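Submission sheet (multi-component)
Chains listed below:
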Amino acid sequence: MRKVEVVDLNAWFGANQVLHSVTMTAAQGSVTAIIGPSGCGKSTLIRCLNRMHEEIRGARVEGKVLFDGIDIYSPEVDPAAVRRKIGMVFQRPNPFPSMSVLDNTIAGLKLGDGRMSKKEGLEKAERALRAAGLWDEVKDALGRPGARLSGGQQQRLCIARALAVEPEVLLLDEPASALDPISTLRIEELVSELKDRYTIVIVTHNMQQAARVSDWTLFMLFGEVVEFGPTEKVFTTPDDKRTEDYVTGRFG
Amino acid sequence: MTVRKSFHDELDSLQQEILEMGELAETAVRDSVGAITRGNEDAALHVIEGDDEIDRRYLDIEQRTLWTLALQTPVAADLRLVSAIIHASLHLERIGDQAVNIAKLYLLTKDLAPSDAMRAQISEMGDLVVQMVRTAMEAFAKRDLELCVKLPKMDDPVDRLNRATHLEALKLADDPAALDWGLHMNLAARALERVGDNAVDIAEQVSFLITGEFREFTDASHEVVP
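Outcome: structure written.
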């Protein structure tokens, strides 16, 4: 089932067009990786999927992004509501530094519906931290500042924070690029575990990471989609010569 | 906790499939020899039909190991395991084909009078090579180097019997029908001898998997110093 469908999407920073007629889908319960050289539009594309792109001054979008068949760019759609359903985790772990692990986890929930009992907050935090594979490491230190965790733990805390608001889609923008190799593998394993419950789109400049974690791979170049297909195919018998050259390290 | 659980689950599953393929190949050889020694046409037909399943597994393992290499970049013992699985699956596929060859040789000669002496040789060879395949796969499952190095020794009587069937066939030269049967059985013996070689090759792969050092246990063109 198509959870997210991008149809003929174009995006600009001022007069500079950075996405050219991008079309792709993300199936329910799958991991889609977006790969391509720096500046090819990967991050712009993923930021268009939950209306983050437009937050930048001068940025604009044309085309459709359908979430469960509804265009998230329709005038009547509230961007904040979109972002609750389509959560995002960024390249650098960005927990609120002075907030405790517990408060960090439920920060998004507090911003949304606001009132929540302490017990309810704890329950929701535990569920999110368990889903993010962090619970066992922090359950005895929920009151510690989030910034005191290791980089890998901080990133899983950010994933827990994104999961706490119970999104249906999770966008990961190079979530492991600032982490050490073992923390990276932990994040990748977490992605494999989460895909049963969430639809995941991950941007990565690490091709092997895309190969390891994703079901579908989209290769972009100069703001255009060069190839979009099952990951096994893209990494064994790609259709396009440019994809072949990129994944084999012959350019880029 | 393993940080790459899904990848290691896939390796476990691949290993399970290669072990099952080993059992299928071993059974196919035993049944093909049984067709000759007991004159069992159904067994021969069953071996020929059953080869599709061995081929299916071979293709499945081929595809999955290729994807594993392309997508998971296995290293160290994981890489050696994938390499050993690729090689072993090809050898097992060949063993399955040899069983089919033997079954077909039986079907071609089932109306000819057999030589008891030669049939006994084939039977003994069959028992030996089935045991070799089983030992190689057991070595794989248990990562047992001592079992691996037994294989070349187990292969010696197989080679001797293979040469002996040739001499036995010559004794049938006076009777064209008997000779016809004997020449076909000489080919069956040759197929069994190849099964033995494949088992030795699998043991070499298992030895590489365990030690990280590749060495041939036997070499047709040179004496191998143990």
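Remark: The helical segments of chain B are 5-38, 41-72, 76-109, 116-142, 145-170, 176-211.
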